[in-house]
Amino acid sequence: MRGTSQASHDAVLREFDPVATAAGEDGITIAEHLFVVVDALDTSGSLRRALTDPARPGKDKASLVTQLFGSLDQRAVDAVSAFASSRWSDEADLAESIEDAGEMALFAYSDNKGTLQNVEDELFRVERLLEGHRELLTAMSNRSATKEQRLNLLEETFGSKLHPTTHALLARVVAVPRGRRLVPAIKELLAQAAERRGRTVASVTSAVELSAAQRTRLASILASAYGREVQINVAVDPEVLGGIRVQVGSEVVDGTIISKLDDARRRLVG
């Protein structure tokens, strides 16, 4: 998002966060209702233009939200009204921001239940499974298949194994990708979960499983480097041969043997 949209996005989410946190068991319902609005915006250019028109008073846009979506949970309606009353650099940013609010409501629900770390762990395991089974990833990401077919595959693969929050988050990105690729979308959800727990995510690739002591040591080193607690997500890949690869956001530290061999090969060729 560009400056104006990002400022509107962040301001409304700051106000919505305590509402989502206080919602308790209603968090999933609020999220579902926010997603209803997103879907309506995605399918109606005239609605997007009406709710992002900078020449239209915010009070009028909030009134339109109430008129169209008044049957939804009032907390969802209030959040959408606040978004609609804000200013946007691009009309598509409104729907994206409401989508983020829906995800926030789901994470707040899980946080209230004390299951947020479990949800984060499940999302990571699903991400690793999909990356390791390309056929499953392709099928679950297939835009030619219907939404129902993709959701059925999600159910067949994971069934009742997932926490309700994990299931709701995955069902949303599988059913309504909104231009997002599945694995990057899950990575973004992982980052949001870690952020809510006050942590930074470090994705670690190692030739062998790290011991508890190694995880603790690595987490301590990264926490010192980034000034906050770090969630270590480890993926085992025998092809790296040895060493570890650590990625935090866009920063990558690659100390694997395969990386060093590739670097040596490039120098020889050069």
- Which word captures the global form? globular
Rg, nearest Å: 21 Å
Q: Numbering strands along the chain, what is their spatial order in the largest sheet?
A: 2-1-3-4
Would you identify the regions where 5 or more consecutive residues have pLDDT less than 50?
none
Approximate helicity band: 55-70%
Which strand-content bin applies to the residues?
Answer: 5-15%
Largest sheet: 4 strands, mixed
What's the average pLDDT? 89
Order of helices and strands: HHHHHHHHHHHEHEEEH
End-to-end separation in angstroms reads 40 Å
Supply the helix-strand structural class: alpha+beta
DSSP summary, beta strand count: 4
Number of helices: 13
Can you tag this structure with a few keywords?
67% helix; 270 residues; four-stranded mixed β-sheet; alpha+beta; globular
Outline the structure in words.
Helices cover 67% and strands 9% of the residues. It is α+β, with helices and mostly antiparallel strands and 270 residues long. It has a four-stranded mixed β-sheet, sandwiched between helices. Strand 1 (199-206), helix 12 and strand 2 form a beta-alpha-beta unit.
Task: Please give a quick description of this structure.
This protein has 270 residues and is α+β, with helices and mostly antiparallel strands. It has helices spanning 3-22, 27-42, 45-52, 58-69, 74-84, 92-113, 116-132, 134-140, 147-158, 164-175, 182-196, 212-226, 257-269; strands at 199-206, 229-236, 244-248, 251-254. The protein is globular and about 60 Å long.
Layout of helices and strands:
Layout: H1 3-22, H2 27-42, H3 45-52, H4 58-69, H5 74-84, H6 92-113, H7 116-132, H8 134-140, H9 147-158, H10 164-175, H11 182-196, E1 199-206, H12 212-226, E2 229-236, E3 244-248, E4 251-254, H13 257-269
